[in-house]
Amino acid sequence: MKPSDVLIKPILSEKINKQTEKQNRYAFVVNRKANKLEIKKAVESFYGVQVQDVNTAVIPSKAKSRYTKAGFINGRKPAKKKAFVTIAEGETIDIYGTV
Question: Of 17, 26, 42, 78, which has the fewest Cβ atoms less than 10 A away?
Fold first, then answer.
């Protein structure tokens, strides 16, 4: 799998910003078929940092419904995989510059 196919987008939230400040940890939505080694190589090649640790979590799909004029509409949100990447001390990733 190519490194450009592994990383889909960074996750930008208050919880991740706190982890970035305290633990030097960043989060990305990644391809569901990507393993930890591929994620590590992709982050190192895209951002030029030394990755220490990669943790992953698979988020299952969810059923969603909403009420409209035509009645209830039922659907599903797709499943996704998140990767939590810890990088070496003193290094940073400029995520806001790449958004």
Answer: 78
